[in-house]
Amino acid sequence: MTKNTLFQYGTMQMLVEGLLEGTLPLSELLKHGNIGIGTGDGVDGELVILDGVGYKIDVSGPAVKLPEDFKVTYADVSFADYHKFKSYQNVELVEMLKDVLTKNNAQNQFFAILTKGVFKKIRTRSSKKSHKPYPSLEKIAENQVEFETENITGTMITYYTPPVFQGVGVSGFHNHFLADDLSFGGHVLAATMKGVVVSIQPIESFKLHLPVDNQEFLNANLTDISKLDNVISKSE
Amino acid sequence: MTKNTLFQYGTMQMLVEGLLEGTLPLSELLKHGNIGIGTGDGVDGELVILDGVGYKIDVSGPAVKLPEDFKVTYADVSFADYHKFKSYQNVELVEMLKDVLTKNNAQNQFFAILTKGVFKKIRTRSSKKSHKPYPSLEKIAENQVEFETENITGTMITYYTPPVFQGVGVSGFHNHFLADDLSFGGHVLAATMKGVVVSIQPIESFKLHLPVDNQEFLNANLTDISKLDNVISKSE
User: Fold this and answer.
1) Of A115, A130, A221, B23, which one is least surrounded by beta carbons within 10 A?
2) What CATH number is given to the structural domain containing A207?
3) How many domains does chain B have?
């Protein structure tokens, strides 16, 4: 089942509750997948893993290659085994992703989507690393920056998570982008495709590893799951 | 990571939404664990897996050994690797489980608990198999039976699931019992221990497999997660 397993480290609830410590070295994460998305210690940028290499897009803009000892707080990775689904031209991101999901009847399963080609317009977000004691999520949101560019060639990695997993992961679509020339990337907020090829990989198994050696995680009060509703939809 | 992985097949949401078809043969489930709990096709009884053998407690009362082709709808299994934690005498189930969880600071992780010994009093529930088209959960609840007995020797298998996984699994404690002589068992509603030994196994990874080959599951509308709040607490 390895090929079609989504491996997730940590939960979205952790981030919402300010448990931001990076506890998994990138080298360990890469044992569970060669493609993926995530964030680093103290919300240290937006991560993209492509062809087994980790990249970070932080507030400075361009992507940087990460060392193997880079500490990851939250990540979703898989072993790339996509097959081509369809080409799209001149379409909004949300419209395109909904079409992919609907045509594959995939709304109740985990689903990996890979979009490669020219993006006519794309707006992304990235974060600045925070240090202990970690500030509130509101403070962190203040330190986020947004980037926008046009006519850029690159790869967008998307994982779809069914609604019942809200708080465990990001329910719905979660997209990170990396430009081919590494000049641009981040957590995708909006985009318009110019001409892209979409490949898909249905996921059969979801494997979650929690930071069970981290005392702050073990000691946290994580009983109030109603807090997840607002924050997650805002952060998407 | 195999040893300390909880493998779950299906979600609680599926049961709530009436997706009751058994889609995984017991023989397949046993590849992922030799101890566990679950339910069968059409909520066909309460399952106990012990030492790699599957048992069903249905409305008739005693446990029966299951054939390998028995179809499972929902299950949690793991590979037993418990270590002794503590002996308990003359204590209520809920009090005992809370003590185990608190003393192990395990409220934020998946946690397996095994209780062996003499139960002074125990009340269990079991269900009657339904057939397609499956009735509503209310109708199924009407077909449930409760059993009660005293001074019985057996094994209780418990999985603790953190709150954020509500709807994915049964958040909190989920306990199934099997008497040593197979005369009694089921989903535990209440119990008082006479003298038992509790062993524990902290779980590091949670691996979920969804019935992605089942068209009814794929086609279902599973977007209303608010429905989970009531039904899950009622079914615990």
Assistant:
1) A221
2) 3.30.1330.80
3) 1
